[in-house]
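I am still learning, so would you mind making up any protein sequence you like and the tokens describing how it folds?
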Amino acid sequence: ISVSPAKKLVAWATGHRKIKVWDITSPKPVEFPQATDCPSLALAPNGSALAVASDWNVKLYDLKTKRERLLLKGHKGQVLSVAFSPDGATVATGSFDFTVRLWDVATGKERASFRWDIGRVYAVTYAPDGLRLAAGGDLGRVVVWDAE
């Protein structure tokens, strides 16, 4: 589940290969059918975009047009976690391939790739100020690093 207070949006994976995005001021959520189950999703802080983990990739949707805008490709294993930076310009992804990758939201280009001894990456998140990121893996370890 993910929220964007700026736009009063809530997004969640149904478990039935669907993502729903609900503007809480409207009566019905918008559905985004998926070809596979979605282990993670994130709303951009300003409510303009949705990132959805899909197998080894991440789909970026434009919420205004309700269409897929970019496909972020480069991981060598299933993507398990996605997170937007507080300014919405970057998406961080964590994967079974033991890496965290940072992606430019405007272009879909990979900005950076990191690998630590934390195992398969199950969680990524940004600090509220955007200056640091954290990732957690299946070896029970967490790493925190500077975003710059």
The two ends are 27 Å apart (CA to CA). The first strand starts at residue 2 and ends at 4. The chain has a mean pLDDT of 96. The CA atoms of residues 96 and 120 lie 4 Å apart.
